[in-house]
């Protein structure tokens, strides 16, 4: 890049890979379909490593999730948008069942029942097999940050 005084600046790009949780219900409601290789612009929040991701994914996989995509509120109006390239997508399915101490009408993820399936695209409507219900996606995203020197 040429500066106003005629000198040239070099542009270095740093890349960081993050793993993003995308809720299935948010994709079904108003998410934009995406595929591996697409550039996406998402509003992200820190991933709450609470009970839900651990129940569905197990502690080892849940630990790898760094962010969650959010477009239904809960974040400030001026929350920054993150731009990145999708490098991998896994559909997440889980069994659901009532807990013994609650109403049988309330279903919860069955710990340890989560299954990951690599997919090349995501639209929120994944095939359901047997007792496994579609829950969401784990998306690997390469985020580029530009630095000038």
Walkthrough of the structure:
This protein is mainly β and 149 residues long. The protein has one domain (11-148). It is 13% helix and 45% strand. The chain has three helices and ten strands. The N and C termini lie close together (10 Å).
Q: Which regions are unreliable across 5 or more consecutive residues at pLDDT < 50? A: 1-12
Strand order of the largest sheet: 1-4-3-5-10
Q: What's the number of structural domains?
A: 1
Gross morphology: globular
Q: What's the number of extended β-strand segments?
A: 10
If helices are DSSP runs of H or I spanning 4 or more residues, what is the number of helices? 3
Query: How much helix, percentage-wise, in residues?
Result: 10-25%
Distance between the amino and carboxyl termini: 10 Å
Instruction: Evaluate the radius of gyration.
Output: 19 Å
Return the average pLDDT rounded to an integer: 83
Q: What amount of the residues lies in strands?
A: 35-45%
Which H/E pattern describes the elements? EHEEHHEEEEEEE
SS content category: mainly beta
Instruction: Describe the largest sheet.
Output: 5 strands, mixed, barrel
List keywords for this structure.
149 residues; five-stranded mixed β-barrel; two-stranded antiparallel sheet; disordered N terminus
Helix and strand topology:
Elements: E1 11-23, H1 24-30, E2 34-35, E3 39-46, H2 51-57, H3 59-64, E4 67-69, E5 81-94, E6 96-97, E7 108-109, E8 115-119, E9 121-122, E10 133-148
Parallel strand pairs: 1-4
Antiparallel strand pairs: 1-10, 2-9, 3-4, 3-5, 5-8, 5-10, 6-7
In short:
The protein has one domain. Helices cover 13% and strands 45% of the residues.
């Amino acid at each position: 890049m040429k500066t106003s005084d005629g000198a040239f600046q070099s542009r270095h790009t740093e890349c960081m890979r993050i793993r993003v949780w995308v809720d299935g219900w948010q994709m079904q409601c108003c998410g934009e379909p995406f595929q591996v290789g697409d550039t996406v612009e998402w509003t992200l929040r820190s991933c709450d490593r609470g009970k839900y991701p651990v129940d569905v994914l197990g502690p080892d996989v849940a630990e790898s999730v760094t962010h969650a995509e959010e477009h239904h509120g809960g974040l400030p109006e001026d929350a920054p948008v993150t731009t990145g390239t999708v490098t991998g997508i896994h559909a997440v399915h889980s069994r659901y069942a009532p807990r013994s101490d609650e109403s049988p009408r309330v279903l919860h993820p069955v710990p340890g029942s989560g299954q990951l399936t690599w997919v090349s695209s995501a639209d929120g409507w994944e095939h359901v097999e047997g007792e496994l219900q579609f829950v969401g996606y784990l998306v690997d995203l390469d985020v580029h940050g530009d630095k000038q020197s």
